[in-house]
Amino acid sequence: MKRIRPVLSIGLAVTLVALSSLREASAQPSTSVDAGAYRGYLAVRRLVGGEVEVVDALNADRRFVPASVLKVVTVATALHHLGAEYRWLTRVMSTGGLDLDDGVLEGDLVIEPGGDPTWNDDFFDGGAADPVAALARQVRERGVTRITGDLVVDVGRFPGRSHPIDRGVGDLPYRYGTPTAGLALDSATITVRVAPGAAVGDPARVVAPDGVEVLNHTTTVGRGRHGAGTLDFVPLWGTNTLLLRGEYPISEGPFVVSASDPAPERRVARRLHEALDAAGVTVEGVARRGSPRVATAEPAAVLAELRSRPLRDLLERILTHSTNWYADMLALTLARDIAGTGRFDDGVEVISDFVRGLGPNANGRGTPGLWIVDGSGLSASNLVTPATLVRVLMHAVEQPWGAPLVEALAGPGEGTLAAWPRLSRVAAKTGTLRHTLGLAGIVDAESGTPIFFCYFVNHYPDRPAAARREIASALGRWSAAATAR
């Protein structure tokens, strides 16, 4: 392959302008996967003194589906705007007068969501029950023993759609595609256990959490359908209902699935209602989502609040283990804290604006180097150029917040890189969707002359192993060439 090695001027902005004049390499890699695949990459090496050398490039300023590689951009945007020590805040408020002499709150008790994604067993030893119990204890410690109104989740802080409009119906019902929520337990998922019925023709046996109604439209079928039966999980959004439909062969064993919670805010309200009762606080009204009723002219009082672990503690789960929920929740947080609307789409626009603010694109025409609809990369509608990813990485390492991002990238054999050929001295983010594979990161990040790279393969119809080998081979060539200099 033809190698392109211009040495560019010091400074990232000048570097990116210079990239616009690159002549793209026209030959395909010698390790090419299927000839119908469409690929693009850019690898640049930062030299001692700050100059930047283009090591290799192909279609570097064309847009590709990035898959989870997009998470690098989302994390960089969040660190830029929020900082690594950012903590989510959830508050419990009063809407009426509080008589501490007799412990009565005349009005509603309101949960003010903060978009905290950490109420799960990743961050609490007791799982989601811990933060709920902590809020209930604080309310009781304020002297409250009775609430005359309802327990209300204020949904006005996060209005609008909670996910991109094009997210597939096959993704939304399951943990990897769960919509965002301003308030949620267990990453807005519920655990459902399913087994075949006792006899052919019976519905499947389904066990769901308390408070979840299951519409069981399944049928147990005979052994002849072994390996061919399918079950669909369909959350009926905004209700407490999960619809199951399809066939379950009687010869197949039980399984457990993490399904999307159809009404995550309501589940939090119910759990807090129960926790308050256990703490000695009686709520006379119902647990609901909506708008609180203002009972008096008195200003709202904060009765409890809970701050999350810092943002930096989520980064490894986003970049090494590629958890979609956390990445999309960063977009929702940016929508609330930076855009000021709490609308998911506006959070995605904050991410786009961050990239546009880094300077002109590699094609030199000033048009955006990305088109995105989410923060996780799950949508196949996302489009990003290799030059954009390289630009974000190079910008990140120059910032005070850059170290946490680089440290959270997967190393050889770690997280999602475990499925890849062994890559030495790399810190990178993988991306995989149907017919799509990508990798972006840094080779020799600790050296004085690191290589920043991004490599996409789109429209690849076969298993991803060959595409992974192609990318790994390219990284090996680039690293060897840099070492030989």
User: Class of the largest domain in CATH?
Assistant: Alpha Beta
Distance between the termini: 18 Å
The total number of structural domains is 3
Multimeric organization? single chain
Beta-strand proportion:
15-25%
Secondary structure category: alpha+beta
Assign a percent range to the helix content. 25-40%
Please provide a written account of the structure.
With 485 residues, the chain is an alpha+beta fold. It folds into three domains: 7-84 and 312-484, DD-peptidase/beta-lactamase superfamily (Beta-lactamase); 89-160 and 263-309, D-Ala-D-Ala carboxypeptidase C, peptidase S13 (D-tyrosyl-trna(Tyr) Deacylase, Chain: A, 3-Layer(bba) Sandwich); 186-260, no CATH class. It is 25% helix and 25% strand. It is built from ten helices and 23 strands. It has helices at residues 12-19, 71-82, 129-141, 264-279, 315-319, 324-339, 344-356, 386-397, 402-408, 465-484, and strands spanning 7-8, 38-46, 52-58, 89-94, 97-99, 104-106, 109-112, 146-147, 151-154, 189-195, 205-207, 213-221, 231-236, 241-249, 255-260, 282-283, 287-290, 302-307, 370-371, 383-384, 426-433, 436-443, 451-458. The strands form six sheets. Strands 1-3-2-23-22-21 form a six-stranded antiparallel beta sheet, with helices on both faces. It has a five-stranded mixed beta sheet with strand order 17-9-7-4-18, with helices on one face. Strand 22 and strand 23 (451-458) form a beta hairpin. Helix 6 packs across helix 7 (344-356). It is globular and about 80 Å long. The model is unreliable at 1-32 and 361-366 (pLDDT under 50).
